[in-house]
């Protein structure tokens, strides 16, 4: 009898987990993805308006990634988590031209933003080389290992050392702060891309092959970048 009492609740729990795993994704998920794109646009506008990110550097960037509200904690090893869009130049060599529809990315891993303690930090990442773009589009990469990164400084002229793959900028509690992302991992968010564009499409197809049109929030982000590039 005691075995029956234990087994029955366990069977119910397992059955419930199986049922949940087979349920379709809620349509609300797409609205959350759109909200992330809107927040990315707000972060981008604020950081450029505050001159935290030099427009001269944006003019030479191949791609840009915006990660709003990355959660960071400095207890022992720093932990982080968040997501946001990446968009690239439409020209073949990625050096000029309009910006693509955004592909979604996630960030996670140890030591990202550890200097801020427990906080929420906005990041802007400028990808400065085609080789860095290829690595980020290929799958999960670790900053500092697979790709090199330099901390961008407020009020800089926009010059970066040769060979730098990514220049990172951070804003915590409304204030600009030099932000190292060494040790953090970046990975395409295929689920978010599928929800946004209503089909299975890779990050490479989105930003390099122009396989999709941006959603309303994505279009705002693209138009904002085009406007910033003309300043």
Distance between the ends: 77 Å
- Count up the domains: 1
Number of strands: 9
Mean pLDDT across every amino acid position: 79
- How do the SSEs run, as a string of H and E? HHHEEEEHEEEEEHHH
Essential attributes:
231 residues; alpha+beta; 26% strand
Overview of the structural elements:
- The protein is α+β, with helices and mostly antiparallel strands and 231 residues long.
- It has one domain (27-229).
- Helix content is 37%, strand content 26%.
- It contains seven helices and nine strands.
- Strands 1, 2, 3, 4, 5, 6, 7, 8 and 9 form a nine-stranded mixed β-sheet that branches.
- Strand 1 and strand 2 (77-88) form a beta hairpin.
- Helix 2 (28-49) runs parallel beside helix 7 (216-229).
- The radius of gyration is 20 Å and the shape is globular.
- It starts with a helix and ends with a helix.
- The model is unreliable at 1-28 and 110-116 (pLDDT under 50).
Compact summary:
The chain contains 7 helices and 9 strands.
Helix/strand layout:
Layout: H1 2-22, H2 28-49, H3 55-60, E1 63-75, E2 77-88, E3 103-110, E4 119-127, H4 130-138, E5 141-142, E6 149-151, E7 166-172, E8 175-177, E9 185-188, H5 190-197, H6 203-207, H7 216-229
Parallel strand pairs: 6-7
Antiparallel strand pairs: 1-2, 1-4, 2-3, 3-9, 4-7, 5-9, 7-8
């Amino acid at each position: 009898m005691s075995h029956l009492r234990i087994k029955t609740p366990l069977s119910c729990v397992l059955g419930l987990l199986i049922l949940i795993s087979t349920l379709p994704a809620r349509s609300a998920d797409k609205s959350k993805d759109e909200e992330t794109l809107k927040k990315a646009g707000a972060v981008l506008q604020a950081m450029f308006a505050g001159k935290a990110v030099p427009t001269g550097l944006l003019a030479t960037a191949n791609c840009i990634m915006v990660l709003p509200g990355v959660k960071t904690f400095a207890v022992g090893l720093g932990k982080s988590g968040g997501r946001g869009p990446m968009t690239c130049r439409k020209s073949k060599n990625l050096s000029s031209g309009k910006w693509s529809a955004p592909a979604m990315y996630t960030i996670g891993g140890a030591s990202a933003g550890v200097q801020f303690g427990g906080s929420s930090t906005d990041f802007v990442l400028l990808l400065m080389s085609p080789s860095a773009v290829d690595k980020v589009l290929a799958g999960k990469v670790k900053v500092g290992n697979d790709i090199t990164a330099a901390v961008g400084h407020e009020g800089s002229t926009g010059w970066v050392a040769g060979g730098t793959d990514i220049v990172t900028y951070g804003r915590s509690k409304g204030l600009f702060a030099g932000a190292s992302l060494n040790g953090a991992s970046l990975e395409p968010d295929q689920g978010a891309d599928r929800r946004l564009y209503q089909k299975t499409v890779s990050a490479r197809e989105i930003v390099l092959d122009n396989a999709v049109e941006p959603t309303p929030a994505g279009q705002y982000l693209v138009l904002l970048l085009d406007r910033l590039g003309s300043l």
